[in-house]
Amino acid sequence: MAGAKAKTKPKRKRKPGRRLFQHDRGLGVRWVAGADEAGRGCLAGPLVAAAVLFDMEALGPREVRALGALNDSKQQTEEAREALYPVVMRHAVRVAVVSRCARGIDSRGLHRTNLAALREALLKVAVPDCICLSDGFAVGDLQGHQGRAVVGGDETSAAIAAASIIAKVTRDRFMHRADRQHPGWDFATHVGYSTPEHRDAIQRIGVSPLHRMSFQSTAYQQLALG
What is 16-217's CATH topology? Predict the structure, then answer.
């Protein structure tokens, strides 16, 4: 029909994983390791660091498509993270998880604990001639391996984003189990973060063995904590 407008196909939304892999390939090395943590800002539960090693030569278009949904774990739903977890495990060359409990965080301090956990996780997956990427913070001595801190790394690097998925899923699963062992704080819902409901529970029933006492939370102010 004259004058009729041709239908245009909607553009496919580009998956973030492709862009993240472009970043890692642009580093010019075969082996790229990335590390990230989950639970740094929580009132309760462990800090979990994870590291993932990718072989850039082994990841072709098919593998990148499978990992196309990779992105910062905080931007994913729980269902999306759970779906990505086995895909990362299948395509990574090495995966390591390091956990630090509340008492360890209290004794060493959060920042030191975080850097040490990230460094340990990276050293568990590192191979000769790899580059080790960490989200936001330089982690210190990597025993001869090249290290680089990437600001906003879980939205920039595929290896860091993959590590963020592993760390977050591992920690959330732990907190769901903890909810059954320590009922009353509803750990399965907020997984230890400082939500209004979590703070109310602390004020009503106190703290559990999973709570970090070194945090200066207003939720603790009305409690007689020795």
Answer: Nucleotidyltransferase; domain 5 (3.30.420)
Alpha-carbon distances, residue 4 vs 1, 7, 8 (angstroms)? 6, 9, 12
Sheet holding 131-135, edge to edge: 94-100, 47-55, 31-38, 131-135, 146-150
pTM of the model: 0.89
Residue 168 sits at φ, ψ, to 5 deg, of -65, -45
Letter string b/e over residues 179-201, b meaning 16 or more CB atoms within 10 A of that residue's CB: beebeebebeebbbebeeebbeb
Mean pLDDT of 67-76: 88
Helix, strand, coil percentages for the chain (3-state, nearest 5): 45, 15, 40
Say if CB 48 and CB 171 are below 8 A apart. Answer: yes
